[in-house]
Write the structure tokens for this entry.
Amino acid sequence: MPPAGGEALDSRSLDEAVAEAALREIACSSALFGGNAAVKFGLKRLMRDHSATERLAILDVGAGAGEGTLRARRFLGLNRSHPIALDHHRTAARMCKGRGIPAIVGDMRQPPVRNRGIDIVVVNLVLHHFARPEAVPLLARLDELARIGVVIADLRRSAVAAAGFGLAGRVLRFHEVTRRDGQLSIRRGFTATELVGIIREAGIRDAVVHRRPGWRLVAYWKTSNANS
């Protein structure tokens, strides 16, 4: 299982300029190294049997700078989707609002949304921030919120990927906080078996987990309400 150890961005006291730089660089690395593609893959699989005309509300949990939120909106269609960003970091919420995304500062474990009050929940690069005893109830809660389904995209643990990110971060001149957090994130990632186990422990039986390029894992499932 992922090792303990907090990432700098987990702290709300991180200097705002550093936090903004790190969030922008994380968005960059997600675009370059498969993160955005992983979310798109999950959404495509989740929505393949769903109506293409319905307007959808999307909750992006742990939205960061909002790049993934915008990508999801583009994939689903600008006139078809209404994205909402949720992050515990005020800097992230400010950056999302600056990109025209409605944003909420709040606890990801208790989103201020009623049950079945959102159509799709997207959780990108968030789950590895939580130890298993916290991750299980988090997934159970998010499952309650979504009317259609949930997409989880996260990192597959790999020493090779961690070393590669450290090297790439230096080449791209990422801030040292981004490099450190990125490598720690990869080390705190999951195997496919571990991710399946956490989802099953949350009481979710129909999830499908895929390995994707860039050392990514993608899980998606339709909620019990999706076909009602």
